[in-house]
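Q: Structure tokens for this one, please.
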Amino acid sequence: MNNCEAFDVVRRAVENGKVLRMLVTPGVDKNNCPYYWIGLRYDMNEIVFKLLVNEEIEAYIMAFLKGDEEMPEVTSCVPDTVTGNKADWLLEHRIKQSVHAESSNEVMTISNGRNFLCTKLKFQNGKISYSEEYSDILSFLKPDEQ
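A: Here is the predicted structure, written as tokens:
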């Protein structure tokens, strides 16, 4: 499935009112293209796939998550390119989208001996999840808590 086909799945699901919730996990791939790992939930089904993003696609996804009645037009499926540090792009994305979130929470998880800080931004129609690996979980404690 190419990127235009992937976006068309999102667009048709949203326009037909089939999607109840959307789960989004942003990232940057090896070609320095930003993407969303998308989960579309409806009834008892979930479709999961990778969608490369640009400003128009990002605005469309955010409009759905926030419950906007008017959806922005998407005229291009060509992904943006991240110049610079991938972690900086993710941090910038999280800060920009947190302004629109209804709530957020952070949880430290351990998986296969690796530590992750998971941040979830919750919206009317879904959530965005960020996960960042940390080698030292004690670095999150304030000096007086250690």
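A few notes: Residues 3-15 form the longest helix (13 residues). The chain has a mean pLDDT of 90.
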